[in-house]
Design goal:
The complex is a heterodimer of chains A (204) and B (459). Chain A contains nine helices and two strands. Chain A has 204 residues and is mostly helical. Chain A has a two-stranded antiparallel ribbon. In chain B, helix 2 packs antiparallel against helix 3 and helix 3 packs across helix 7. Chain B has a domain of 160 residues. The N and C termini of chain B lie close together (10 Å). Chain B has 459 residues and is mostly helical. The chains are: A mainly alpha (204), B mainly alpha (459).
């Protein structure tokens, strides 16, 4: 071992060099590949039908999406919900089409929200699976719609008027964001509604 | 004590070390309480429903970051302040700087906790520190590194004990890893590209900062508490270079099957030499005189920590295969695994140090051996139960999802597992309370002994 210790300086430089090689090989190159192949996209070019009454123009809609995303981060929803569908374990049957890199090339995915744990279901195909009202009721008190749910309630995004809770701006923005998730894919495959409620039998 | 030893004692700032440990012990309580409350959410019994700043998602951030940044980093840094002067014979660059870093760092940790509760957490796993605090943290880390690297740099031409190798490497890697992981995915690279970097960040933070620091601490403490030499110095050096060369290369395993380019995901099936050299070396050293185990309190913490390390690493090797990932990813398996790594291994190693050093700093023997034994068994059994329970839950959840059972049924079926988890958490908390009682009583004892204990100690 004297040998190694004699050349400790050389080895230390070698260690750092390998760190940078790993960084280049496993971060810089794949990042560059993705950025080259998939151009960055706008998050919305027009207001979707569902939101024509709520948001007058695309800029206010985009602002709402950003705000919704910020709440999603603030409440750490991403610790309980993932945002990618894997090409394994029958996930394309449960959630919808498998995720592609291009879907994530936009500002709402900066920082990325892939997530590493599914206490609740994946949300990358959440768009139009449920109605806005379902989402409001669910956010206000999840067990009122899904009795066995362990999802936290978020009543502070609602204000009670005449005994009826009404969504505040924040809740509307959050739900607009949820309805946006996967909406670029939904156009191609109609709706994901069938996936969650009546999953098809597994492939042979 | 010889003249030379006396000189070395003066290089060590015991007050600073104890401050770091006190802060760490404070945070472990904060974070266990946070974790326990969060686990109650899974039983539909969350103690603070409808309170915005105690929302479970935010509490979870306090739990994970409290353990990592509050408890483990404080503890590991305290250990560095001890072993680096001891092994190099030089003091850190500046004692004032040490205190400055201590204050700044702990103010930042408190700031982070407040930030999380105010909903300012960042969406980067293990880097959730609010984005506006990140530059300050990076600065603090750099100051700390300069302070601690100076003595190592002074003796660079001489032979170094393996702990110094690990410490030096970790100190060099940490700022690089931190800056890479906290800034690139936050501001520059979205989506898939960001995930590629985050994945590398999570992997490197554990592998290139926490692991080498933990190993450095244990390689130092083990021969000291056993009063026996390390089994093989050569093996420890081989393990070190194995870590340096191979570890960074297998980083993408946190997002297998994701849209990240597939070849980086293949690279994650990593090399495991590193781990086994460390584990073998520690066990072989203990085996030379294993009869010490029952009565040597720090030694048993090292022993269990190393055992846990071995188990988690075998798990790692299984987990990173694509077929296992297909089932267990996204499930409670992963949660069990991280608890075993951070509590079972690293917290155990740091706790060994607390038992070793705090009574010495105070100049009295530990107040109660039996309390220490209870602490050990409650922690060891608690974490083992939690581990087995969550692994089983994970396999069940993964299978149910794959078999397209309605999602909510998998949630309902997890209930017994989540109850067990909360129960094991209570065991761990009880153990920590006994720990606190024991330390407090020891400290009370020390006040009765005349002052000047720091100097008169053979540490």
């Amino acid at each position: 071992m004297d040998f190694i210790e004699k050349f400790s300086g050389v080895f230390l430089i070698a260690g750092l060099f390998l760190f940078f090689m790993a960084f280049i090989g496993l971060a810089v190159v794949p990042v560059w590949m993705v950025d080259k192949v998939e151009p960055r996209q706008e998050i919305a070019t027009s207001v979707p039908k569902l939101y024509l009454d709520t948001y007058s123009d695309v800029e206010t809609y985009k602002a709402a999406l950003r705000k919704g995303r910020d709440i999603y981060i603030a409440e750490a929803c991403w610790h309980c919900h993932s945002q990618y569908v894997r090409p394994t374990a029958n996930e394309e049957l449960r959630y919808g089409p498998v995720s592609m890199p291009g879907e994530y090339q936009n500002e709402l995915n900066l920082p990325q929200l892939f997530g590493t744990r599914r206490v609740g279901p994946d949300l990358s195909r959440a768009a139009y699976k449920k109605s806005n009202d379902w989402h409001y009721a669910h956010l206000y008190n999840p067990t009122s719609v899904v009795p066995q749910s362990v999802m936290p309630s978020y009543p502070w995004y609602f204000e009670v008027k005449d005994g009826v809770p009404q969504p505040k701006e924040e809740a509307k923005a959050l739900v607009a964001y949820l309805q946006w998730l996967g909406s670029s894919v939904v156009e191609k495959s109609e709706s994901f509604a069938s996936y969650i409620d009546n999953p098809l039998p597994p492939k042979e | 004590m010889t003249q030379a030893e006396h000189k070395k004692e003066e290089l060590i700032d015991y007050k600073l070390i104890s401050w770091h440990f006190y802060a760490g012990i404070f945070y472990i309580f904060v974070s266990i309480l946070a974790g326990l409350s969060y686990s109650l959410q899974f039983l539909q019994k969350y103690p603070f429903p409808g309170v915005e700043f105690l929302s479970p998602g935010r509490i979870r951030l306090v739990h994970t970051n409290g353990v990592a940044f509050g408890w483990l980093i404080n503890g590991l840094v305290a250990i560095l302040y001890y072993i680096i002067p001891k092994l190099t014979g030089h003091s850190v660059l500046s004692r004032k700087l040490s205190y400055l870093v201590f204050c700044v760092y702990n103010v930042l940790v408190v700031g982070c906790v407040i930030g999380y509760l105010a909903g300012k957490g960042q969406a980067i796993e293990w880097g959730e520190t609010p984005a506006f605090l990140d530059p300050f943290i990076a600065l603090g880390v750099v100051l700390l590194v300069i302070n601690l690297l100076t003595p190592i740099f002074k003796i660079r031409a001489q032979k170094m004990y393996v702990s110094l190798w690990y410490a030096a490497a970790a100190l060099i890697w940490t700022p690089l890893v931190y800056v890479m992981g906290n800034f690139l995915p936050q501001y520059i690279y979205p989506g898939t590209s960001g995930a590629t970097i985050t994945s590398m960040y999570i992997h490197d933070l554990v592998g290139l900062s926490v692991t080498p620091l933990g190993i450095a601490a244990t390689y130092y403490l083990l021969p000291v508490v056993m009063k026996r030499p390390l089994y093989s110095h050569a093996l420890s050096i081989i393990g070190f270079w194995g870590l340096a060369f191979f570890y960074p290369l297998n980083s993408a395993h946190h997002y297998l099957f994701s849209p990240i380019p597939m070849w980086t995901q293949y690279a994650s099936i990593g090399v495991h030499v590193v781990v086994y050299t460390v584990v073998f070396n520690i066990f072989a050293t203990i085996a030379t005189d294993w009869k010490q185990l029952p009565d040597n309190i720090p030694l048993r913490w090292i022993f269990f920590g190393t055992l846990a390390y071995l188990i988690t690493c075998i798990q790692c090797a299984v987990q990173v295969t694509l077929s296992a990932q297909s089932i267990i990813h996204f499930t409670d398996w992963v949660v069990g695994h991280s608890h075993f790594v951070l509590f079972g291994t690293f917290s155990f190693w740091v706790t060994a140090w607390v038992y070793y050093i705090l009574p010495r700093i105070w100049g009295v023997p530990l107040y109660s051996l039996s309390l220490a034994r209870w602490h050990f068994w409650l922690s060891a059994l608690g974490i083992s139960i939690m581990q087995i329970d969550l692994l089983a839950a994970g396999v069940m959840q993964g299978m149910m999802w794959k078999n397209l059972v309605p999602f909510i049924d998998s949630v309902a079926a997890s209930a017994p597992f989540w109850w067990t988890r909360t129960f094991s958490g209570i065991m761990i908390l009880t153990g920590e309370c006994l720990f606190l009682v024991n330390l407090y009583s020891t400290w009370q004892d020390s006040k009765r002994v005349s002052s000047g204990v720091l100097q008169s100690q053979t540490v």
